[in-house]
Amino acid sequence: MSRPDEALGFPLPLTLGHEGAGTVAALGEGVTGLALGDPVAVYGPWGCGTCPMCAQGKENYCTRAAELGIRPPGLGAPGAIAEYMVVDDPRHLVPLGAL
Ligand SMILES: [Zn+2]
């Protein structure tokens, strides 16, 4: 019998939460277009950002995600059911405005 993390293909324990929303609590170096406190949703299907599908805004069809080991938050990478979540790129945040 295989271990659960071997069967899933990613390490456990894992923070779940693939449909995240919250407010920006910190910004990485060079990030523009976002400000502390901005309400955002987290776009879940992360891709490489550079392949033809990602370039069309279709990261859920990224042709390189598996090869690069990119896993969606909450579905193989730490997710949103936590006080804070690290988002790797501002393109994965959807501004919510006054919603
Ligand atoms: Zn891609």
Strand content: 5-15%
Unreliable spans: none
Structure annotation, total helices: 3
Total count of strands: 3
User: What is the terminal separation in angstroms?
Assistant: 47 Å
Approximate shape: globular
Lateral arrangement of strands in the main beta sheet: 1-2-3
Q: Bound small molecules, which ones?
A: zinc ion
The helix/strand order is: HEEHHE
Outline the structure in words.
With 99 residues, the protein is mostly loops. The protein has a domain at 34-99. 13% of the residues lie in helices and 10% in strands. The protein is built from 3 helices and 3 strands, in the order αββααβ. It has a 3-stranded antiparallel beta sheet with strand order 1-2-3, with no helix packed on it. The longest helix is centred in the N-terminal third of the chain and has 5 residues, at 4-8. It starts with a helix and ends with a strand. Zinc ion binds at residues 47-48, 51, 53-54, 62-64. The site of zinc ion has 8 residues, from helix 2.
